[in-house]
Amino acid sequence: MSSPVPELARLLRTSLAGRVEEAYSLARHTTYRLGGPAALYVEADGADDLAVLGQVLKSFEGRAEVPLLALGRGSNTVISDEGWPGVVVRLGPGFSWIDALASGPGLRAGGGTSLPQVANWAARRRLAGLEFLVAVPGSVGGAVRMNAGAHGGEIADTLAQVIVYDLGELRARHRESSQLDLSYRHSNLAAHHVVIEARFAMRIDDEAAIRGRMKDYRSHRAATQPPAVQNAGSTFKNPPGDSAGRLVEAAGLKGFRVGGAWVSTMHANFFMTEAGARAQDVYDLVHEVKRRVAQRFGVELTPEVRFAGRFESDIRPRQGSSPR
Fold this sequence. Notes:
Elements: H1 5-13, E1 19-25, E2 37-44, H2 47-59, E3 68-70, E4 77-79, E5 84-91, E6 98-100, E7 106-110, H3 115-124, E8 127-128, H4 140-146, E9 149-150, E10 153-154, E11 159-166, E12 171-176, E13 193-201, E14 203-204, H5 207-224, H6 244-250, E15 257-258, E16 261-263, E17 271-273, H7 279-297, E18 306-308
Parallel strand pairs: 2-5, 3-5, 4-18
Antiparallel strand pairs: 1-2, 6-7, 7-13, 8-14, 9-10, 11-12, 11-13, 15-16, 16-17
């Protein structure tokens, strides 16, 4: 069967206010700056665009399989070198906004809003509880999906409610935080769920105290973690009662390299890349480090970074020199 992408693109271009592109490079939308193109890229301008996308995808059911990937700011995503074979949907500028809650201290934000923007907006209004987001390079929607956290805080601590657009049911639904099954770096949101709004119940505090905590978090990140470029943040989830970085370092893997990707010498749970690196290099490095830690300590590390698209699983990584 021929690819459904040209017909999908034609149908969407006639109906969407947002952007529709074929063979669109996704590397620019991930912090690793790696990976191939989306067969079809859709940047939704509003909820109406999501409704149209859902309707068009539903019309192809039974005719062709169209894989769907929701992509935020790409701060924990590695796109395959081959790219994504179906539709990638991102929230456009219309989903980047912040407002105060109608009652009680707190805020509501669009799913595409950047996390540092949320933290700073809250601080200016003496709203406490989201300071840890100040150095997290992601979006509100992505943070909810993975229950993002840092410095002892996580989204679940303040999240009250979300509005999720269901591309399968073609409607937006309000869901309480308690309905999301939030746990460590986990929610029950599926691929066809797009977080378009989140509401956070917060507390009032002294602005200087809030700013002080934010400064401490930024300083700690700068002192202990590599810059948020050419990496995807923490690579593995911390196992119960231990630290993934400690285990990787104890296994002697700081500086361990596969192709153009290597384990940071600054923090062993951050994996870096250089110019010319491939997404496959990152995949191989992650799985080889996981294998060696399991072999050495009997602990199965779970990747926090997600891999999207097709990767070769039978590549045997090679160890090279320490990063230059």
